[in-house]
């Protein structure tokens, strides 16, 4: 036990030394050094835990100890992975989960902190991938789902809680947030200007939410206690989560149900039950990969299954991504480009989806949740035999169980949708010429169907450059939203996706803005389907944030798409189906079929994935 400042300083010095040794170990792997690091981690862990649990320690001291636990967990995962001790990696993963959760609770009291998530992501890297892989390999699929529900998208859960509230409460929240931002947004078209008189209403709303949550949290505590008591018994844990998924339906209010589900970490089985989709987590480790299947619909109670994918690992995933990146830095002819794309899709199909479809014959509708390093691959275009995965199965990308559940919480308007189409072609050498054709043509699809449409083209003829709040005001009014622009800020080395419309809009802006519930969103912008490369474990990016802000589906591109008439034609086909009421995944699937029939090259359509329902 750490009793004095001197003892704590000595312990923290030992932790720093372990971190330094682990960094060297990763460069020069050695089993003897890995064992020595593991032994030191085992000696330090009880000292750190006692400091965290001590009632007399200050908040700052406890936070320092939490950071030390994070360092020990990361080192333990790395060293035990080298030794191949999957059980020890799993236990280090539990420490990692505890440390991340405690850090978020400690620092996120005032709201979502993207800086924190970026810092955590850069520090953790693929360690969570390794921990989840090890958990699956020791046949604990239930714990895989629990860890994913606990950690993935955990940094902005408060935003998702708002979106599950009543419509009146969401509007009050929106106006209150606009007030605190000193926003210049004009609400006069749809809502009154926020005033100080709304402050009591806002606090009343907050109080009502707290009172409403008491019942859900009280019932959830029974399940969380039982789950902790189950220890590492995966069968017992699964029975508790299944009972939690059953209990969730007894809450009539969506906000109460959401709190209960998240408090009990039964989001994955409940989402599989509600959506009718099998949920498959794709996880890579240094020694191989796994697919973890949670059964959907009426079969949700069946214990999840693990399928080992031995021929793909973290190194191979990185090599596939490098091949894709190199493709856009080369000057290949059309035939060579087609051949390269075909090799990528065939390889992904052979390594991942041929084993999945061969072993799980009854798959029909599924949601893929690629975790960490597995994000950002063209799954829908993967080839199973001669067929695209997106053609033989109804597939969507999560990107997490929480966002998938949220995307199914609001029904999109399909009978008479309002379409909002905004394009910014930029200027000079970065100009996207076809945006000036894309925006009016998409608008015409909806006007021809006598649907309401709003188009805004920020080209040279538009002397007024709207600010971000004006753009958000338009976006929030659309049942269908189409944004055509550049997808990243070149000065940020492609690490953080941006929508370059007027003032550049980062994905974090949707933390304080909302979409029309059930909105179907199409992002005609390069690379915005990717999550931030610095936060792989948090799944931070436009798809997750848009779904958290109220969208039912998001169609977006994983990599640069050509500025061509063929791309415009592909976008028109997507909106043809959206205007007829199809979901995002259906519209993308049918549009890709038409693109292939028209001999449009895969550089146009294969980068697009559908997220949400």
DSSP summary: helix tally:
23
Roughly what is the average pLDDT, rounded to an integer?
85
> How many beta-strand elements?
16
Structural class estimated from helices and strands: alpha/beta
Domain CHAT: 346-612
InterPro entries: CHAT_dom (IPR024983)
Protein name: CHAT domain-containing protein
Q: How do the helices and strands line up, and which of them pair or pack?
A:
Layout: H1 5-27, H2 31-53, H3 59-83, H4 86-107, H5 114-124, H6 127-137, H7 141-151, H8 157-163, H9 167-180, H10 198-229, H11 234-248, H12 254-264, H13 267-275, E1 278-284, E2 289-294, E3 305-309, H14 314-327, H15 334-359, E4 365-370, E5 383-384, E6 387-388, H16 389-392, E7 394-397, H17 401-407, E8 419-423, H18 435-448, E9 453-457, H19 468-475, E10 480-484, E11 486-488, E12 497-500, E13 504-506, E14 520-524, H20 542-548, E15 553-557, H21 565-579, H22 584-597, H23 602-605, E16 608-612
Helix pairs in contact: 1-2, 1-3, 2-3, 3-4, 3-6, 4-6, 6-7, 9-10, 10-11, 10-12, 11-12, 11-13, 13-17, 14-15, 18-21, 21-22
Explained architecture:
Residues 346-612 form the CHAT domain. This is CHAT domain-containing protein. InterPro entries: CHAT_dom. By secondary structure, the protein is α/β, with parallel strands linked by helices. Among the domains are: 4-111, no CATH class; 412-612, Rossmann fold (3-Layer(aba) Sandwich). It has 23 helices and 16 strands. The chain has helices spanning 5-27, 31-53, 59-83, 86-107, 114-124, 127-137, 141-151, 157-163, 167-180, 198-229, 234-248, 254-264, 267-275, 314-327, 334-359, 389-392, 401-407, 435-448, 468-475, 542-548, 565-579, 584-597, 602-605; strands at residues 278-284, 289-294, 305-309, 365-370, 383-384, 387-388, 394-397, 419-423, 453-457, 480-484, 486-488, 497-500, 504-506, 520-524, 553-557, 608-612. A 6-stranded mixed beta sheet has the order 9-8-10-14-15-16, with helices on both faces. α1 (5-27) runs antiparallel to α2, α4 crosses α6 (127-137) and α11 packs antiparallel against α12. The longest helix is centred in the middle third of the chain and has 32 residues, at 198-229. The chain is globular. Mean pLDDT is 85; it is low at 180-203 and 489-494.
């Amino acid at each position: 036990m750490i009793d004095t400042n001197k003892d704590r300083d000595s312990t923290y010095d030992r932790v720093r030394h372990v971190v330094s040794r682990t960094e060297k170990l990763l460069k020069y792997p050695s089993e003897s050094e890995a064992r020595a690091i593991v032994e030191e981690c085992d000696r330090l862990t009880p000292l750190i835990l006692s400091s965290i649990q001590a009632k007399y320690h200050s908040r700052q001291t406890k936070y320092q100890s939490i950071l030390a636990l994070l360092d020990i967990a990361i080192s333990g995962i790395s060293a035990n992975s080298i030794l191949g001790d999957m059980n020890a990696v799993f236990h280090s993963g539990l420490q990692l989960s505890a440390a991340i959760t405690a850090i978020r609770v400690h620092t996120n009291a005032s709201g979502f902190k993207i800086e924190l998530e970026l810092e955590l992501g850069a520090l953790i890297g693929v360690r969570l991938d390794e921990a989840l892989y090890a958990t699956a390999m020791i046949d604990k699929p239930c714990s895989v789902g629990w860890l994913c529900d606990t950690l993935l998208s955990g940094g902005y859960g408060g935003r998702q809680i708002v979106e599950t509230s009543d419509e009146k409460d969401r509007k009050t929240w929106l106006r209150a947030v606009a007030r605190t931002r000193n926003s210049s947004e004009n609400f006069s078209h749809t809502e009154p200007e926020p005033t100080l008189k709304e402050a009591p209403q806002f606090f009343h709303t907050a109080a009502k939410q707290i009172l409403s949550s008491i019942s859900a949290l009280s019932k959830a505590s029974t399940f969380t206690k039982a789950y902790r008591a189950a220890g590492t018994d995966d069968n017992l844990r699964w029975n508790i989560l299944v009972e939690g998924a059953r209990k969730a339906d007894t809450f009539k209010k969506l906000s109460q149900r959401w709190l209960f589900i998240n408090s009990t970490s039964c989001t994955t089985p409940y989402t599989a039950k509600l959506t009718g989709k099998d949920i498959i987590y794709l996880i890579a480790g240094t020694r191989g990969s796994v697919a973890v299947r949670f059964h959907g619909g009426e079969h949700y109670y069946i214990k999840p299954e693990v399928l080992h994918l031995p021929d793909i690992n973290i190194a191979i995933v990185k090599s596939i991504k490098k091949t894709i990146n190199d493709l856009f830095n080369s000057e290949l002819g059309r035939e060579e480009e087609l051949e390269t794309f075909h090799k990528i899709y065939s390889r992904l199909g052979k390594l991942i989806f041929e084993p999945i479809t061969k072993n799980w014959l009854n798959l029909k509708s599924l949601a893929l949740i690629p975790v960490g390093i597995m994000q950002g691959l063209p799954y829908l275009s993967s080839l199973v035999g001669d067929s695209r995965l997106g053609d033989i199965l109804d597939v969507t990308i999560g990107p997490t169980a929480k966002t998938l559940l949220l995307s199914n919480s609001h029904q999109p308007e399909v009978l008479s949708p309002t379409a909002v189409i905004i394009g910014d072609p930029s200027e000079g050498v970065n100009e996207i010429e076809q945006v000036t054709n894309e925006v009016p043509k998409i608008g015409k699809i909806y006007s021809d169907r006598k649907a309401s449409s709003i188009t805004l083209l920020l080209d040279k003829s538009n002397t007024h450059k709207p600010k971000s709040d004006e753009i958000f005001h338009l976006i929030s009014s659309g049942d269908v939203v189409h944004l055509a622009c550049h997808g990243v800020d070149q000065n940020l080395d492609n690490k953080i996706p941006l929508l370059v419309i007027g003032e550049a809009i980062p994905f974090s802006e949707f933390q304080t803005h909302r979409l029309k519930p059930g909105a179907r969103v199409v992002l005609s912008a390069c690379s915005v389907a990717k999550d931030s490369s610095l936060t792989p474990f948090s799944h931070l990016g436009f798809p997750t944030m848009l779904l958290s802000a109220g969208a039912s589906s998001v169609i977006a591109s994983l990599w640069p798409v050509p500025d061509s008439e063929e791309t415009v034609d592909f976008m028109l086909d997507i909106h043809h189906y959206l205007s007829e009421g199809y979901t995002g995944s259906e519209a993308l699937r049918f549009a890709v079929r038409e693109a292939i029939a028209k001999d449009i090259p895969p550089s146009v359509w294969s980068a697009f994935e559908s997220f949400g329902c």
